Write the structure tokens for this entry.
Amino acid sequence: MRLGLYRRLSAVESHEAIEAFAAELIDRFGPLPVEVKHLLDIVEIKALCRQAGIEQIDAGPKGAVIAFRNKSFANPEGLIAFIREEGAGVKLQPDHRLIYYADWETPEERLAGTRDLLRRLVDIAAQVKKAA
């Protein structure tokens, strides 16, 4: 049963599908342990990375470092606007890695902050697809 659940979870791609999966787990097994909540957060973060074209993200207490797939972003103009909006809180390095500065002391803050950042990047990347 556990392998079947892991297999189903690996195919989940949207926030709504993850919420539905969590609701099913709660219905079948009761309240979710913190570890399962973190696993669901990580599954969502991985899905958001795929949607935004992000190859790697490293999040820590001081923020995140993001590497884009093929060193490019789907909407470069939108990314530049995002960097301007954030000011000193974001920097694009010459190797095309995005540095995002934040104060995320706890693992929960890192997961939530990373998820929120990725949602913004997914929205920015999707804007170019709508225009095309």
